[in-house]
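Technical appendix A lists one of the benchmark inputs used to test multi-chain prediction within the project. The record comprises two sequence entries:
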Amino acid sequence: DVKVTQSSRYLVKRTGEKVFLECVQDMDHENMFWYRQDPGLGLRLIYFSYDVKMKEKGDIPEGYSVSREKKERFSLILESASTNQTSMYLCASSLGTNYKYTQYFGPGTRLTVL
Amino acid sequence: AQSVAQPEDQVNVAEGNPLTVKCTYSVSGNPYLFWYVQYPNRGLQFLLKYITGDNLVKGSYGFEAEFNKSQTSFHLKKPSALVSDSALYFCAVRALNSGNTPLVFGKGTRLSVIA
């Protein structure tokens, strides 16, 4: 089974702090994704990566950056956390080919910024 | 551009009754369609997907979905609902042969199965 793990289930940070959210997958997937989930807004794509050291902006990249130094690890960075970044953050991964493109999700990190 | 609509924020159904969660999509070319389920404080779990072939797709936990190209729909169904099916359901789409384009998700439908 594909396993996607996220470093924390719950996180509380202060406004202005630099926050790192880590995601690791164990199935040698090329693609990795970061979403945030908010009530009534569904899932919104922040960034994705289709190869090591490659990144693409999603729909809401402002205030975030990402790092992918190794194939299995994709980090989301909040450079200076703000209260409007309080949310559930979901990481996902998938193979790169069309017919095997199913995205597999981690358990999520619920981030609260005070 | 790709988009997904889930017209109902909430669906209520009695245990043992059939359930339907609706999804319509818009995509250029042929679609690649998914349903995911999310239980409280958990990530999304894959339920089923349609690529090509039979319009009726069977997935996990007794769920199935019917692809209707003329109506651009991919409704999720189950013949007999269980209380344990209560969760948040997401439909997602991407165009086939669209390279590395990520899935586009609907806003989700909360299913409540009442005993």
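Chain A has no helices and eleven strands. Residues 22 and 75 of chain A are 5 Å apart (CA to CA). Comparable benchmark entries are summarised in Table A2.
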